[in-house]
């Protein structure tokens, strides 16, 4: 079942076209990874899906809704940023529950949702701390927790592990795969790291210069790259 559909999407900044006609179907529960070199348009595409950038041309469908002009908060989507973007003066618990407060949930319901997200992410013991008292990996879990409590249909991740050291990146990668299994959610995940893409994805979308080069299962891209760019990018060791 299709959860999200992108049709002939284009994005220009002034005269500069950075997304040049992208089509994509994302199925419910699928882990889709956008991969490609720096500057190829991965974040721009993700931000258009989130509603943080206007779509210059084309259509974005989420379920049965044409979402081009739907407010970011009403798209059933939650985004996790590379920078974590936590509020430094708030505790971990308040960071996780902040959007729920804005949405008007009672304190009781908020506490309940914060607890269950913290349990999934194994950060229950950190709820009273401030972000400055956490490691990079713990901060990233809090940022993910803030997305989980909103119970979105679709999670968007923009290079969530790129600020972590190599060992922690591997650990968090496994945790993200586990989280995907637990939540059964649809995930769209951006990385420039082909190893990350190969290990996490049900479906990989290889982008270069604002154009989709190939879409497929990791194994298909590896064994049957459709062009030299894909072959070089997926095949090259990190
Ligand atoms: P990626 O995430 O793959 O590294 P981006 O989506 O951030 O790439 O950027 C794609 C292209 O769009 C780049 O050439 C970048 O310089 C350009 N770009 C991104 N945001 C803006 C903006 N707000 N104004 C002008 N150009 C932008
Ligand atoms: Mg980016």
Automatic annotation (TrEMBL):
Output a single Gene Ontology CC term carried by this record: maltose transport complex
Q: Which UniProt keywords apply?
A: ATP-binding, Hydrolase, Nucleotide-binding, Transport
Q: What is its EC number?
A: 3.6.3.19
Residue span(s) of domain ABC transporter: 4-234
Could you tell me one molecular function GO term of this UniProt entry? Answer: ATP binding
Q: Does the keyword Nucleotide-binding apply?
A: yes
Family affiliation: Belongs to the ABC transporter superfamily.
Protein name (Swiss-Prot/TrEMBL): Maltose/maltodextrin import ATP-binding protein MalK
Q: Complete protein: which residues are present?
A: 1 to 238 of 360
